[in-house]
Design a protein that fits this description.
Helix content of chain A: 40-55%
Oligomer: homodimer
Number of domains of chain A: 3
Distance between the termini of chain A: 70 Å
CATH topology of the largest domain in chain A: Butyryl-CoA Dehydrogenase, subunit A, domain 3
CATH superfamily of the largest domain in chain A: Butyryl-CoA Dehydrogenase, subunit A, domain 3
Radius of gyration of chain A: 27 Å
Shape of chain A: globular
Number of helices of chain A: 22
CATH class of the largest domain in chain A: Mainly Alpha
Largest interface: A-B, 134 and 134 residues
Largest sheet of chain A: 6 strands, mixed
Number of strands of chain A: 11
């Protein structure tokens, strides 16, 4: 009996689970590393779900922002009170999983503390500062955040306006917000929760600017939480999503801090104002790379949750008939529904497996850095920039497709998907705006292309640029050899990535030849540049997905191969114009690719529910009436709605206005 | 001096407005029909903005659902008290504009009353019912809604589960909700506001079912608003958007209503239970068509608002440098930003003008119907189904691009765009789920294709199917003749639409030849069917946009032609693979199309702000800090945020938990 089947389940779901051709448990084990890790996930999940301290009743989406923040703060206190009994606190994976289960994709007061404040402190604090503050921070005796972005500047950090002027006399820095647009804006937990922040400001010494540096600033009293003198701090107001978090603003009015509160592990300002620059210019490079590498996994996780919800719901929702004399069908049997949904399941797997590969690359790179070898870093930096951009947009739009596949109920917060969408789509903007990220990757592609011209060796992620390409595709020539077929598809990705890189480079060169400066020519070529960078990322996802599938256990390899095949064919058809453009493929080959999508949809159909079960998301985490494991949706939907804040009373106070209006209208006659 | 320029404006916006090559006022007049109509819009806008009864302070997005509903109910009462002084109440356009200005894209208690309840009552009530209820409804002495969709059935109306059993003895209908999934779900204003509803239920007489019919049911007491006996009614809970509206549920427990409360203009149940069917089977066809025709305009309006916000903001936002020694540039000067934004401005114009053409077609069709000629109806039905689907999705995703073009601040509710997105994307699901709508259009395409085979004449919207096509495109051959160039592009749309219709038809035929039933074969061809239907709609939008531009006044025709050119080239490039597939175009032609996009972006650049000014949306309607006419964004953003509900006090009550947690952590040491 499949693990996810229980008595009392919706029979349509049970039928689906029993019909699967593989064991979802094996796939979960592959996805999360081992059977034991899956067990541990479930254990944490069970502990949280059964602990009344972490109750989500009423659902967070029913209560206003202030109450939500209160609920999450209360949970935070209770969680911290027993966290050492629950998990190994120093294990990042366990901590992240526990936080996710407790706070369910919503903000909480110490989110930025762990995500940014602690890592930056650990990475950049000099010994004296670390001695004084690190254990307090680790022990959460203070709550910190990281205040970099300003109202007027996000992407272009060099132009941040906040100033830290060194006062030699008093050995202090004076932090100041000179204009309205210099107000720090957006940092999470800055508005109401944090009492300390690392603040990025332009360092000025003796009238000279040394660029942005980080300073350790107390924002609020540890006793009564009131803002310190010179500090104006508050919440920036409601957002499209993530409203359980207090993204904040911060203005500093000539706030003085001791010289030792600058983060001086790599740079130094001596008491007399002497400035010592960092040895390497890109000291904080690694951190950014890590955050972006990890974003591939988080975006894929949002999508895997949305795909779980939409697939389970599509299996229990019956509407309409395919054949007039048979009963209403499960909507998952409509071709349009399969075409909308199954590629998103495949995409979730592709990005999850690709994300785990890129996190491995990151670890390898860090090991290299520790040996003093920095040569892997530029490659990984370009790759993660492009991947961050492609995965955030493609996963978010895929989440939205999953939502729409649930029809009207997908629009209700009961589906849980609107929340996933607003989190995922935010990823297009934070940690580097996508268009800017793609340009960073494109610059790297240009440099690498120059290397091929000079016959220099290419780094890992751009090796394809140096490959001898066949002029014609062999797509469709290996109908009976799946391995060859997949390799042919991957070669067509490489062909497109190479061609677009060359096209962008030519556009740049042509504009320069016509007399434009390099910078202006670059701006005139950025759309083509970004197209090249996107395919560079798509190629990496495709290749790494294929590698992971090839190394998967025999029991799950067939179903993963079906997913891989769907993914590659779907992506290739989406890029058809590039294949047709220079005759790499002909129309007949494209028709074959399209037909293969339909073949793959049919192969995946019996395994669709088991494939999403294998993501192994708990009901609590999914937070979705439509995506419940047991499939008993309609009664649950009714119970959920009854608890809506508007149903506490039968008649709302607003009726007074309505009553008077109706009476006045009657009186008019 | 351009109309939209005022002293104290952000100088970047003033510079843009002065640099425009055309007069935005002329374009507004063209868009809204006349200079007088634009003036009237502004007048209504001014009246509402200056009336403290309609104040939106604090902003609706700051307050919870119950308060929002209360605020809107209060405004409703005040508005109704003086509406006859403000507008001609019977003029639908004026009423809609007034409602929009007063309630600003949010729900209000009498939204469904006007949108559905009244039209259905007017269209389907028999004389006796009309006499009793119509003036009460017109006069808003009662508040009605339209309850059709159920929890378990939206699209497939034939399977609605609510039952109306005729009780001959008592000459009553007994309305009943037999299962949980039969609960009415989603109707707007049903939850808390309406006291009457038209309820759709399966008519049963003497054990025989006659299919879904409409019944007039009292839900709540006119005095104290309590639900009537047997009525369970409430709000369905929070949604992705539109949370100012009380979408509701309704369960009926053997509720008895007199026989005369069935809507019997076209059908009849005699006291003895004799059933008289309607003369025409598709009595209510016209209403659906009208709602969908109107959706083209509303979707385009949402997009025009988002484009206004993003374009103005892109003109005042300065970030980064294109040339290192020059100041930071307006972000609108980045090629990626233009590529992201300007096609959306063009799309907004395309859909607005196309929407007005389809509304004209609707009027013509109704005039025909009144003369007893129903031959235009099937064409318009197919066209509006496809247009509804294409415009809702393309405008909503375009809104989202506008939002992301605003960077981080686009994610704040202060931008106003999240609200536009959640309204627009809902249009993909309501009034007929998009996939189903496309299939309806595709069925019509199949029928029309059969007609061409039989040499029968084709209706207006599908005439292209009978056109003799050139086998090779002449795209790019008319570089010096804009009119010919545009016609060549439109022909390529026709080529694609025809080809995809034929491909879908062949797929259907092939599956049937292989032995599948027609229905099963249809399901196996729906993805191809929907592709054909989408291009059918895109062709209509392109053609009607071109027609409207051709008939525009000389003063605005050049700038509109630039927009049209951008729109057509952009759309064609998006459909490149279809043009390359069978050699209709070659790679060189495609490169030319791509280059033309960049040419058009450059032409539009100086007119971008004036083009969005011409949409003439008031600041109140835009409800956007980023999109303010005056461009003074940063100070306004700060003031907006300060008013956030979380900033009423410096220290939230949630700090109690945080304080205790920090103290407990300190004590652990």
């Amino acid at each position: 009996m499949p693990h996810h089947v229980k008595s009392g389940d919706n029979p349509d779901l049970t039928k689906e689970r029993k019909a699967a051709t593989f064991n979802a448990e094996d796939l979960s084990a592959f996805l999360y590393g081992s059977k034991e890790k899956v067990e541990r996930r479930r254990e944490i999940s069970r502990i949280v779900a059964s602990d009344p301290d972490f109750s989500n009743t009423p659902p967070l989406e029913f209560i206003d922002r202030e109450k939500r923040i209160d609920v999450q703060a209360k949970k935070t206190r209770r969680l911290l009170g027993k966290i050492h009994e629950l998990i190994d606190f120093t294990n990042d994976d366990e901590r992240e999983l526990l936080f996710t289960e407790v706070f369910v994709s919503d903000g909480f007061p110490i989110f930025l503390h762990f995500a940014m404040f602690l890592p930056v402190l650990q990475g950049q604090a000099h010994e004296e500062m670390a001695d004084e503050w690190l254990s307090k921070a680790m022990n959460i005796e203070i709550i910190g955040t990281y205040a970099q972005t300003e109202m007027g500047h996000g992407t272009n950090l060099k132009e941040l306006e906040t100033i830290a002027t060194y006062d030699k006399q008093n050995e202090e820095f004076v932090l100041h917000t000179p204009t309205r647009s210099a107000t720090k804006w957006w940092p999470g937990n800055l508005g109401k929760m944090a009492n300390y922040a690392i603040v990025t400001a332009q360092l000025h010494i003796d009238g000279k600017s040394y660029g942005p540096h980080n300073f350790f600033v107390q924002l609020r009293s540890e006793n009564d939480h009131r803002p310190m003198a010179g500090i104006t701090v508050g919440d920036i107001g409601p957002k499209m999503g993530a409203n359980g978090i207090d993204n904040g603003f911060l203005a500093l009015d000539r706030v003085r801090i001791p010289r030792t509160r600058m983060l001086m592990k790599y740079v130094k300002v001596a008491p007399d104002g002497t400035y010592t620059p960092p040895l390497h210019s890109k000291v904080n490079y690694g951190g950014m790379v890590h955050v972006r590498a990890h974003m591939v996994t988080s975006m894929a996780t949002y999508l895997s949750m949305a795909a779980t919800i939409a697939t389970r719901y599509s299996a229990i929702r019956r509407q309409g008939r395919i054949e007039p004399n048979l009963p209403e069908v499960q909507v998952i049997d409509y071709q349009t529904q399969q075409y909308r949904l199954f590629p998103q399941i495949a995409r979730a797997y592709a990005c999850l497996l690709s994300g785990s590969e890129v996190e491995d690359l990151y670890k390898k790179t860090v090991q290299g850095l520790n040996r003093g070898e920095a040569d892997l870093l530029p490659d990984l930096h370009a790759l993660t920039s492009a991947l961050k951009s492609v995965c955030s947009f493609s996963c978010a739009t895929a989440v939205e497709q999953c939502r729409m596949a649930c029809g009207g109920h997908g629009y209700s917060m009961a589906s849980g998907i609107p929340n996933l969408y607003t989190f995922a789509i935010a990823g297009c903007t934070y940690e580097g705006e996508n268009m800017v990220m793609l340009q960073q990757a494109a610059r790297y592609l240009m440099k690498s292309l120059d290397k091929t011209a000079r016959g220099e060796p290419l780094s890992y992620s751009v090796e394809f640029l140096g490959k001898k390409m066949e002029t014609r595709s062999n797509v469709g020539l290996h109908k009976n050899n799946q391995k060859e077929e997949i390799e042919a598809l991957l070669c067509s990705f490489e062909h497109i990535a190479t061609r677009l890189t060359v096209v962008a480079s030519q556009k740049l060169q042509n504009r320069m030849k016509m007399g434009e400066s390099k910078e202006r020519a670059w701006n005139g070529a950025t759309v083509e540049m970004n197209k090249a960078a996107r395919v560079y990322a798509r190629l990496f996802i495709a290749r790494s997905f294929a590698r992971r599938v090839a190394s998967s256990p025999a029991s799950v390899r067939p179903v993963l191969t079906d997913l891989l095949s769907l993914y590659l064919h779907y992506e290739c058809v989406d890029m058809t114009h590039h294949l047709l453009h220079d005759g790499y493929c002909n129309g007949e080959q494209i028709e074959y690719l399209k037909q293969r999508i339909y073949d793959d949809l049919a192969k995946i159909r019996p395994n669709a529910v088991a494939l999403v079960d294998a993501f192994d998301h708990s009901d609590r985490l999914l937070n979705s009436v439509l995506g419940r494991r047991d499939g008993n949706v309609y009664e649950a939907l009714f119970q959920w709605a009854k608890a809506s804040e508007l149903n506490y009373t039968d008649v709302l106070p607003a009726f007074d206005h309505i009553k008077q209006m109706m009476e006045e209208n009657r009186a008019k006659i």
